[in-house]
Every structure is written in C-alpha cells, then in structure tokens.
Design goal:
Layout: H1 4-23, E1 28-32, E2 40-44, H2 46-70, H3 76-107, H4 125-138, E3 146-148, H5 152-168, H6 176-179, H7 182-197, E4 201-203, H8 212-232, H9 236-250, H10 252-255
Antiparallel strand pairs: 1-2, 3-4
Helix pairs in contact: 1-2, 1-3, 2-3, 2-5, 3-4, 3-5, 3-7, 4-7, 8-9
C-alpha cells in the first residue's frame, strides 16, 4: 500500500517523458494565421499532444499527494521522487516545447531556417529554474499553506497551454500572432523563470479551514478560472496563471498566514 503513491509519481514521470518524445516529433499541420488564409506556418501537431500529456502529468501529480494522505503513506523518499518526476514533467518537457516554439517562430522570418541554435537554447532556462525551485522547495518546510515563488507545475501548465492555444484557439481572443513571436517567447521564458526562483509569497490550495473569509482568494481564483474557460478556452490557463499571481500579492496576508 505504501508504494501506491510512488506509482502515481512514476506515472507523472512517465507522462513527462512521453511528452518530450511528442514535442520532438516533426509531423505538422498548417495553421493559418489570418482569416483570408494568406499567411500560414507549419506547426508540429504533436506539440499539442505533448501539452495534453503535461496536463495529464499534473493531474497525476495532484493525485499522488491525495493518495499518500489517503493511505497515510507519506515518506521522505516519496517527497524526493516527486521532485525528480516534476523536474522532468514540468522542467525538461516545457523546455523542449519552448525550444520548438522558438524554432517555429524563427521559421516565420526570412532565413529563419538557418537560425543558430544559440537563439533557441534560452528555452532551457525554464528547465534550470524549475530544478532550482524544486531543490529550494525540498529544503523549506514552511511552504505548506503558501509558496515562495511560483510552483513548477504552474509554470509547466502555462507552457503546455501555448501549443494548445494555437491548435484550438483562444475563444473570443485571437492572440496566436503574438504568441508565436520569438520576443514574446523570450519574455515568457525570462518572466516564468524569475517567478520560480523568486521569493514572492503565493497562495497554495491547502485550506486551514473552509470559511469564505479565509478562502476568498482561492474562491475568487476558481471563479475567474471558470469564466475564463468558458470565454477563452485554452487561453484560460495563462489568464488563471496571471490572476493567481495578482491575487496572491493582493491578498498576501490571507494567503501566507
């Protein structure tokens, strides 16, 4: 029974590995950037599959903690194994997705096919920041009802949503032309990496009690998430990500005590 949570953790790692494989595939489809079909770029369809796999990994990552508490099977090994799985699923895999998105952003430019790998390697800054964040988290026992810095799964899901937004659209907002530019991607890389290694006080979804007063930021975030999902589809993930940070800072006293 005590190994069941670890099996969930290993499934998280397994899904992350498969996501990397799909992110590296070259099979493509044509995504039209304008309504008159005048501008099209070839985007690896398998990137969207990689994104979906990371959402599956996040679900399993949530369940392994739930199962560990259910069977009273929490252990130091499970904690370390969880971080090792997360560094693959929410560190290495998002780095590969960003690498591919950067490569495709340069393909839209003149002579983009000959772009130096030097301009693509910044994608893995996210992977390094994720590893640093996880190591720092393992050494800090105070991050139970709040976090210092953005958790790696949150950044991993943010990155995983980018190819899904381009594949399925952003609902009432069309920002695909903005998302596929290299400068936007560089900004995402730098900002999310800094957010992970920072000491910003951010809320966790572990409730001390279920009173509306103490849980108002979490309830508000859930409401924003629901409305965003209806209006913006996969674009809701970045919206929720931004709202999470803003609400954490606005309600710092409620989310860190």
């Amino acid at each position: 029974m005590k190994q069941i949570p670890n099996l969930f953790t290993l499934l998280n790692l397994f899904l992350g590995c498969i996501a990397i494989v799909f992110a590296l595939q070259t099979q493509s489809y044509y995504f039209y950037m304008t309504s008159d079909f005048s501008t099209a770029i070839s985007i690896p369809e398998s990137l969207s599959i990689a994104g979906l796999l990371l959402f599956g990994a996040a679900l399993v990552d949530f369940l392994d903690g739930f199962v560990a508490r259910l069977f009273n099977a929490s252990s130091e090994m499970g904690k370390q194994l969880d971080s090792l799985a997360d560094v693959v699923s929410f560190g290495a895999a998002p780095g590969v997705i960003l690498y591919q998105l950067l490569r495709l952003s340069y393909m839209r430019q003149e002579n983009g096919l000959s772009v130096s790998i030097v301009f693509l390697l910044p994608a893995f800054i996210v992977s390094c920041a994720a590893a640093y964040r996880l190591a720092k988290f393992n050494l800090d026992d105070s991050q139970k009802y709040s976090f210092r810095g953005v958790p790696t799964p949150a950044v991993g899901l943010f990155v995983a949503s980018l190819p899904l937004i381009q594949h399925f659209g952003g609902g009432y907002l069309d920002i695909n032309n903005i998302l596929i530019t290299n400068w936007t991607l560089y900004a995402i890389i730098l900002i999310t990496s800094w957010l992970m290694v920072s000491n910003l006080p951010l809320m966790a979804f572990k409730f001390k009690n279920f009173s509306i007063q103490n849980s108002f930021p979490q309830i508000l975030l859930l409401a924003i998430g629901l409305i965003s999902a209806i209006l913006f589809h996969w674009l809701a993930i970045p919206v929720i990500f931004i709202a999470y940070i803003i609400l954490s800072l606005l309600f710092k006293n409620k989310t860190t005590t």
